[in-house]
Amino acid sequence: MKKFFTSLPFILLVAVVVGILVGLVANEAVMNVVVTVKYVLGQVIMFCVPLIIIGFIAPSITKLGSDVSRILGVAVLIAYCSSIGAALFSMLAGYAIIPNLSIATSVDGLKELPDIVFQLDIPQIMPVMSALVLSILLGLAAVWTHADLMCKLLDEFQRIVLAIVTRVVIPILPFFIATTFCGLAYEGTITRQLPVFLAVVLIVIVGHYIWLAILYGIAGAYSGENPLRVLRQYGPAYLTAVGTMSSAATLAVALQGANRAVPPLRRDMVSFGIPLFANIHLCGSVLTEVFFVMTIGQMINGSMPELSTMILFCLLLGVFAIGAPGVPGGTVMASLGLITGVLGFGDTATALVLTVFALQDSFGTACNITGDGALTLMLTGYADRHGIEESDEHRQLFNTEDEKKIGFVK
């Protein structure tokens, strides 16, 4: 029982509940402190994201050796297929369900969060996508040139980043999550805005679970392993994603969960795949956006977009999802050009898309990050089927002492 109350899932649940309760009763003075703390913690977490990406992807690429180009290509391909598959699945569900719905559109009456009292800006050393590209190029170049010294340096850098993750990022995550939900409760999103699109949000969340079942089913069939052995380790990551609304901010917890699913996952595929998929695999967000734009098209224009238009939108959205940042609202912000250009949405429709997307963004992110486990299982199956030897990486990603602190050791 003691282990349960000190476990990360329980701490995250407490953070969510406490945040909502404080937000419902807080006055402006209290919220000044809350939004300031949230901003500073968010700055710290997001500053660490490029470091995590470089620290995990680049060394993992060097360990894959001559097979790295093939593995990277497969990873990008299955991430894109998952995203467009989710988009097309959502499109078909939209044409079948949306005409039978009657949904209110009023989203007025929300409070405004007070201004930040103390704004401490901590800019990232580079944008997330720059870190991703740098990691890939650095790892590939080190393999191509047989740069043994650089490989050792990257390996040491990974150990440094691991210390940052376990001793800085994960301990502050519950506070960041609590302040996030506190702000939502204070604004009125929890009590007012959510019921406006409750029917649509619930349908989308069910869609997330269906798509995750499909992904894990395919991964299990392809790899020959029981996918539930991976899925059951994703509870903490799912809850963290719900709280942070960011795949990037959830990366540390996702790495822990996936590392505990070794086997059936391969450790080298975890170190390589999880950070990569956290930035290029956004199946839940894509599924959500497709259903929402169809719903809002019905609301504003009285009809959903044409089938040919939606197919084009889905195919292009999959590309934009690969390049979208793993931050709250990253997918919908990256695809605003598609929403206005391909679908022809005006200001009102675009504002509605942004609003309703924000309502469920946490669940879409949770679907994204949980789906990464299925894709990593596919990568493991591909490596095993094609005789790609596992890299000699025997050390734990998180040492026993750190795992005990956050409740991952039984």
Could you please describe the fold and organization of this structure?
Helix 4 runs antiparallel to helix 8, helix 4 (68-97) runs parallel beside helix 13 (283-301) and helix 4 (68-97) runs antiparallel to helix 14 (307-323). The protein has helices at 2-5, 8-25, 28-64, 68-97, 128-144, 148-187, 189-196, 198-223, 228-231, 235-244, 251-259, 267-280, 283-301, 307-323, 330-334, 336-341, 347-385, 400-405. It is mostly helical. The relative contact order is 0.17. The model is unreliable at 393-400 and 402-410 (pLDDT under 50). The chain contains 18 helices and no strands.
Task: Please describe the topology of this protein.
Elements: H1 2-5, H2 8-25, H3 28-64, H4 68-97, H5 128-144, H6 148-187, H7 189-196, H8 198-223, H9 228-231, H10 235-244, H11 251-259, H12 267-280, H13 283-301, H14 307-323, H15 330-334, H16 336-341, H17 347-385, H18 400-405
Notable characteristics:
single chain; 410 residues; mainly alpha; 75% helix; 0% strand; globular
Write down the Rg.
21 Å
In the predicted model, the low-confidence regions spanning at least 5 consecutive residues are 393-400, 402-410
Mean pLDDT: 76
As a percent range, the share of strand residues is: under 5%
Shape: globular
Number of strands: 0
User: What is the CA–CA distance across the termini?
Assistant: 11 Å
Brief summary of the model shown:
The protein has helices at 2-5, 8-25, 28-64, 68-97, 128-144, 148-187, 189-196, 198-223, 228-231, 235-244, 251-259, 267-280, 283-301, 307-323, 330-334, 336-341, 347-385, 400-405. Helices cover 75% and strands 0% of the residues. The radius of gyration is 21 Å and the shape is globular.
